[in-house]
Amino acid sequence: MAEQSPVHRLREIAEEIRCLPKAFEVFSCVEGEVATRAGELLAEALELRAFAGKEYAPLRAVVARHTRQKTKDPDEWQVGVWHEAVCGEHSLLPDFRGGHFSLWVDACGPVADLLEAEAAKLEVEHAEGGPLLEVASWSDLGIGIDQDGYWAITPCPECGGVFATRYAKKLELRGPRWKTLLEGLANSDNGNFFPVETIHQEFGLSDHVMSIQGGLENDDQSGDDQEEDDEDREAEEPRHVALARRNWETEQRSKLLRRKLIEATAQLSKQLRRQVRGPGRGSQPPLSNHDPYVVTSTFVVRHLLQDPVTRQLCFGRKPA
Predict the structure, then answer these.
(1) Burial class (CB in 10 A: 0-12, 13-18, 19+), 127
(2) For residues 156 and 54, what is the distance between their CA atoms, to the nearest angstrom?
(3) How many domains does the chain have?
(4) Strand 149-153's sheet: what is its strand order?
(5) Is the pLDDT of residue 231 over 60?
(6) What range defines the domain where residue 58 resides?
(7) Considering the domain boundaries, does residue 60 fall inside one?
(8) What is the pLDDT of residue 223?
């Protein structure tokens, strides 16, 4: 899957927006023509993670609401994007906030300057080995799986929606635990949960046989030997004592498995954060298993499937 440099594309977008007033000066309604093209370009820039800082989150939310209207309002959504970015409540240009449509053309130069600065910032992050993507919320992240690996994109496409590969970033998530987890999530109904029983088995957490000897330790005894010892011990103690002991050992074993699973999901979350910058402490983590029966991801995972008609890659679930 070929990748286009987001830095290079952002600079192209900035230059095109800067030149729009000149390009459309022959039209009688230059404001509308400029706003239509500028809004389309700005929406693309946001997909490339321009203005990804938390201070721009309200603007990104407003723009996302307009871009979702592409199919319903294919001729006007771009104007809405540009107006919000220039004159709206969350304008990129404070001096233009609350202004008239006549400012749409004048805003091209200042917005282009901001985009150039965003491209330079992104270039520095890449040079320093910084995160590939930044998301305001982990729910904005989609991870697609194909034969080449795992691909991250934001905003997250809807199930069955087109996966814009030129904006996707390849994640280096290595090891059997990631493979098990992401495949399991991708095959779930919503793309974001995996039964704990399967995780325990696949992560190798349930292979450890534990005994209580001044605390839980790994037991090297074979299954047959352990069973014989249990039978001898039960013959020496009353039935209610044996039952209470077995229940206690089962409870301790369950607690240990849960603790190991929490540690495993925390480690995987940490690895993901190195490649995708998201909200920090106090927010919902990328992975959790607060539900004792399910491991949940805040992001969504799906397979990348080729549409037989359009040949485009779609973000979907494999047929059963």
Answers:
(1) exposed
(2) 18
(3) 1
(4) 161-162, 313-316, 300-306, 142-146, 149-153, 169-171
(5) no
(6) 6-130
(7) yes
(8) 47
CA–chain centroid gap for 121, Å, is: 21
- Position 69 pLDDT exceeds 50: yes
Is residue 193 scored above 80 in pLDDT?
A: yes
- Cβ–Cβ contacts within 10 Å for residue 78, how many? 22
Is 266 within 8 Å of 275 (Cβ atoms)? no
Interacting residues of 310 by C-beta distance below 8 A, sequence separation 6+: none
Query: CA-CA distance, 307 to 60, in Å (whole number)?
Result: 29
In this structure, are residues 169 and 153 in contact, taking their beta carbons and an 8 Å threshold? Answer: yes
E strand map for 209-293: 210-212, 216-218, 276-277, 287-288
Does 103 fall in a domain?
yes
Q: Are 119 and 135 in contact (CB under 8 A)?
A: no
Contact 316, 303 (CB under 8 A): yes
* β-pair partners for 276: 133
pLDDT tens figures, 23-50? 877 776 778 889 999 999 999 999 888 8
> How many Å apart are CA 158 and CA 247, to the nearest integer?
45
Helix (H) or strand (E) holding 242: helix 239-273
* Better-scored residue on pLDDT, 246 or 157: 157
Our CA angle for 225, 229, 231, nearest 5°, is 115
Q: How far is CA 72 from CA 32, 67, 68, 77, in A?
A: 19, 10, 8, 9
More confident residue, 64 or 240: 64
Q: Which residues pair with 193 in a beta bridge?
A: 296
Q: Is residue 182 part of a domain?
A: no
**What is the chain's mean pLDDT, rounded?**
81
CB-based contact 24:34 (threshold 8 Å):
yes
Within a domain: 126 = yes
3-state secondary structure of 313: strand
